[in-house]
Design brief:
The chain is mainly α. 68% of the residues lie in helices and 1% in strands. It contains 11 helices and 2 strands. A hairpin with a 6-residue loop joins strand 1 and strand 2. The longest helix is centred in the last third of the chain and has 53 residues.
Length: 351
């Protein structure tokens, strides 16, 4: 069975498991802050409670599976299959303690702030980056997914920050949103008596203000300390997320930009040569038609250069093997050595 054997890190079943883990971790990252900050009525529904317990049991299973999942040894570069080495790597790496704390039922202790330890499940969402990097999608598609991933992480950060901020200001209920200052002389803000939806969006709105460094007028030492730390940290988050987003979008545009430069250069040359419009149209049509084919060939050449000689030979053998076997010369022979020799010659001759 899947759960009783050593599991390769890139096993299709393990990848599907990780995708489910990411979905459940996202659910917890959204639901736990909402429960702790606003104590909504649906949090007491039996269906909601049972679903959360099911998710927690799933994370316990994930913790156990990590003791049976292979990893790459950073010193040798080899994939480790030995269960003792896998367990030692997981235990000494420190991640196991985070996973244990994330599944501990802090809600039974009755402390509102301890429930935030459940947000340690958020760390599992970082597997999404690894899955995108290991996928066999084209680079442009990967870049698009990474941009979406950064937007998703930004929302989660703002969501969690807003909920924590509301827990802090709700403890004393002396903080007034800057937009409600005009109400200070007429009974103050009505935020704390509002419904859950209003409280949530007020909190998210002010979390965005914290992220960009706006003034929130904290009223006590705890609020001052929280705003100071989060505004400072927000500057780092801004630089990281939006900096990476700019790099990814630039990478997406790079290929299109290079092709446009080729078109502009061709147009400039044809204009200087005073070619007819018919020839110009034919040349541009040809460049557009062959653009994807040329790009694929360049990608293939770069791919082969990145391989070791033995792997490059295996790739070449895989490409030409079927053609050689159906040819009149080699089709009847079962001599693998001869086919291997011919493939090696092709590898040298054509590449």
């Amino acid at each position: 069975p899947f759960w009783l054997r050593v599991i390769r890190y890139n096993d299709p079943a393990r990848i599907k498991w990780d995708l489910v883990v990411i979905v459940f971790a996202t659910w917890n990252s959204i639901s736990i802050p909402l429960e702790v900050a606003f104590e909504p009525g649906f949090a007491e529904d039996i269906g909601y409670v049972l679903f959360n317990w099911t998710v927690d049991l799933f994370f316990v299973g994930d913790l156990l599976l990590n003791f049976r999942t292979t990893f790459f040894n950073p010193k040798t570069g080899d994939e480790e299959y030995d269960l003792k080495k896998i367990a030692r790597h997981y235990l000494l790496g420190g991640r196991v303690w985070i996973d244990v704390l994330s599944v501990f039922p802090f809600n039974v202790l009755g402390n509102r702030f301890l429930n935030f330890f459940g947000l340690l499940k958020l760390i599992r969402i970082t597997r999404l980056t690894s899955l995108i990097n290991r996928s066999r999608m084209r680079d442009t598609v990967k870049m698009m997914f990474k941009v979406v991933e950064l937007c998703f992480f930004l929302y989660l950060y703002v969501h969690v920050l807003g909920c924590i901020f509301f827990v802090i200001v709700d403890a004393h209920q002396v903080w007034t949103p800057p937009t409600d200052f005009i109400l200070l002389n007429s009974g103050g803000t009505q935020l704390y008596e509002s419904n859950t939806s209003t409280k949530y969006w007020y909190s998210v709105y002010h979390a965005v203000l914290i992220l960009v460094g706006n003034e929130l007028s904290p009223r006590n030492d705890i609020e001052l300390a929280f705003c100071t730390l989060t505004i400072t940290f927000g500057a780092i988050i801004n630089a990281n997320i939006f900096g990476n987003m700019a790099v990814y979008i630039s990478t997406l545009n790079m290929k299109a930009s290079r092709f446009q430069d080729e078109i502009d250069e061709a147009n400039s040359v044809m204009k200087n040569l005073k070619l007819s419009q018919e020839i110009k149209d034919s040349v541009i049509d040809y460049l557009i038609f062959t653009q994807s084919t040329n790009a694929m060939q360049k990608e293939f050449d770069a791919f082969r250069k990145s391989l070791s000689p033995s792997l490059r030979h295996e790739v070449t053998f895989s490409i030409f093997n079927k053609v050689l076997r159906v040819s009149k010369i080699f089709g009847s022979t079962q001599n693998a050595t001869l086919l291997d020799f011919v493939t090696g010659a092709l590898d040298i001759a054509f590449y």
